[in-house]
Amino acid sequence: MSVRTGAAGATPGRVALVGAGPGARGLMTARALELIAAADVIVHDRLLPDGALDEAREEAELIYAGKVGGGPSTPQGEILDVLIERARQGAMVVRLKGGDPFVFGRGGEEALALRAAGIDFEVVPGVTAGVAGPAYAGIPITHRGRASAVAFVTAHEDPDKPESSLDWSALAAFPGTLVLYMGTRRLEAIAERLLAAGRPGSEPAAVIERGSFPDQRVVYATLATASRRAVEADIGAPAITVVGPVASLGEELTWFAAGPLAGRTVAVTRVRAEASALARELQALGARVVQAPAIRVTPLAGPAPDLAAYDLVCLTSPNGVRYLWQRVRAAGGDARSFAGTTLAAIGAGTARALAEHGLEADVVPARSVAEGLVEALVDHPIRRALVARASEARDVLPDALRERGAEVEVVTLYETKAQALGPAELEAARTADYVTFTSSSTVRYLLEAAGETGFEPSPDARIVSIGPVTSETLRERGLVVHVEAERHDIKGLVAAIVGDAQGD
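and the corresponding structure tokens:
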């Protein structure tokens, strides 16, 4: 069990048993996201939607308690001990599970243990894979005239039981749909038992791998051929098998089309809090996103500048907007504090961050780099300018404004630091199909996080840069730039990846 430590809250301890759904982040409930954002401790499974933990607080304690079929697993007793211990320490604990905690998720066992320990708890249902997987494959598990009942069956029973509690004869005669969980490796044996008990071998069947995930795959077959077809297609876990007449509807009702990045893995190296927008755009196009946030942002203390003293205020990033706004608000100001000054923003993302506070950027250059803003300001008379930025930044913009005779003040609002990465995160980045870099800082800090072993992507990996400045840093550090965005922002980065994947 791996742990990222943090501070526990002071509220009375309690535990929320939360279902994260089948894999698509959009299927997570509002309550699940609310609890993740508020949690002091999150004990989470392996099969979670990409970005499920994005809203977790920086100081929250994240504890991985995943289980891998046929591989290393965290003992259930150890998980229970952690839940009870952290709750008794006063923490608000979220036990985050794939699917639904009370559908083959051992949530009932955990609830009983919490009740016995006197720990308050709540249960947040999630969309279970046995419903979502077939739905994403176009299979209604009940359908008038084909199935008026459905049975959910797990292929993994308690290994300590003396014998199986499943009545295979009853399942074979069941007048409805059978939905089999966690049965990929045992599918042949399950089919043989059903066939031996009288279930027709010609009955339609479908095996759904990673249902609702961007790389979902479906194999249509019959009960007699499902195991062989799944092996031929190299179907792996997690997978759901549907047996019954409704399975044949899948090919007719299929609707979940693979996006242009289906089957591709993209590593995102930017700050975790900023990675969500990029990750969601990539996921919407079918990519599997792995996060390796090698950089973190820390605000710097300081007073709010007197904005009325400047006829130009330049913001170079969304972080600059965020921390400038915090200083203005702390001083009792608001959007009116920006009245009478020209607001310039490098990049559409920075402009959007301003818009969130009711502020419209007057100047947004076509090229999202300092040189682009210098060009865009060529016809603007400037007497006094404020450049709000990170502590480590190029001086292209302030130097160019000074050369034009402007009095320039640079206020540093935040600093970037290296974020330690675990071996799993580094390995995920090394083996990704695409590794994205959105700034020179992400390059420097990923290499720092890699340590003595260095960062050596797989031979087939494609390194993607958001623009020429980042590309220059990559080359200086000995990395080949395979793809550079023409538009130097997140949308441009995504478009560049799609174009490369499609061979444009």
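(Above: one complete record from the training split.) The chain has four domains: 2-126, 131-253, 265-294+419-501, 299-416.
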